[in-house]
Specification:
The protein is an alpha+beta fold and about 280 residues long. The protein folds into three domains: about 10-125, Maf protein (Alpha-Beta Complex); about 125-185; about 225-270, no CATH class. Helix content is about 25%, strand content about 25%. It has helices at about 20-30, 60-75, 135-145, 165-180, 195-210; strands at about 10-15, 35-40, 80-90, 95-105, 110-120, 125-130, 150, 185, 225-230, 245-250, 260. The strands form three sheets. It has a five-stranded mixed beta sheet. Helix 1 links the parallel strand 1 and strand 2. Helix 1 runs parallel beside helix 5 (about 195-210). It starts with 10 loop residues before the first strand and ends in a 15-residue tail after the last strand. It binds zinc ion (2 copies).
């Protein structure tokens, strides 16, 4: 496979998608002088889908990495972009939807990935059991249908349909299949049928671009960025180490070199295991 040389002024990355993600990612990369090549010849659904037609065997990060490496292989470009979303309940109360978007850039020449994560409650991720059409208007409102997609049924069920794009078609399909019993309905999380998700992918792209533009002072690789801080800030009252940050850290994802900045601030006793157990 031909690879680009180390020319810093020529950065081209490939993205595999059939779900319109190129439009959400390309502008942020263009802002730092990167060109994003769209490759729609490969069906990424074969790597796993949200609707469970193909089980996702590997983790979130592995899935994004597989797509990014594949993009390099199929395009022959040095850089490949991988995107992967996951959805569930919020990690605190479990009472609202929660989205996690990962966008990463694989450098096939130096064999490392730069990652950008975006997390938040901005998602319509939800599912319902529909007993009769009376409940439909409320569901459409919560799902954002028809701007956002709704999937009827589960893979393998007679009612399964994920390409209903207007209310008349949805109603007709539901009416036909409700005769056989209650139906499962869920929000379509595929990017091209979910503008809320697309907006979060665009935010992840902005974070990735920012990281790619930051160069490691040690090895010159792209992606130098802040990682989790070290805990241990002293308690204001008793001086014992707390779980509050005492050192900010930055790390290079390529050579692993770190830079640290000690924080002088003491922590409030409310974070102290001795003063406030
Ligand atoms: Zn480095
Ligand atoms: Zn204390």
């Amino acid at each position: 496979m031909p690879r680009e040389g180390g020319n810093m002024t020529e950065r081209r990355a490939a993205l595999l998608t059939r779900h319109g993600k190129h439009a959400a990612i390309a502008p942020a990369l263009a802002g730092i002088g990167w060109d994003l090549t769209l490759m729609d010849s490969f069906d990424t659904d074969s790597l796993g889908t949200f609707t469970g037609e193909v089980a996702r065997a590997c983790s979130h990060r592995d899935a994004a990495l597989t797509k990014a490496k594949l993009a390099c292989e199929l395009s022959g470009l040095r850089y490949g972009i991988g995107s992967e979303g996951s959805f569930g309940a919020d990690p605190w109360l479990g009472s609202c939807g929660w989205a996690t978007e990962l966008l990463l850039c694989w450098d096939a020449e130096r064999q490392y990935a730069v990652e950008a994560w975006m997390r938040g409650p901005e998602t319509n991720f939800r599912h319902w059991t529909l007993h009769d059409l009376a409940a439909l208007p409320d569901i459409m409102l919560q799902a954002g249908f028809p701007t956002h997609g709704l999937i009827v049924g589960r893979p393998g069920e007679a009612a399964f349909h994920k390409a209903l794009t207007d209310e008349a078609a949805l109603r007709a399909h539901l009416a036909r299949h409700l005769a056989g019993g209650p139906l499962h309905l869920e929000c379509d999380m595929r990017a091209h049928r979910n503008p809320t998700r697309m907006a979060m992918i665009a935010r992840a792209a902005a974070a990735l671009a920012e990281r790619l533009a930051s160069v490691c002072p040690g090895c010159g690789a792209s992606g130098f960025g802040e990682i989790a801080p070290l805990a241990g800030a002293p308690c204001q009252d008793c001086g014992a180490p707390t779980r509050q940050a005492c050192v900010r850290r930055w790390q290079c994802p390529c050579c692993q070199a770190t830079r640290e900045q000690p924080l002088r601030a003491a922590a409030s006793p409310q974070y102290c295991d001795y003063c406030n157990p």
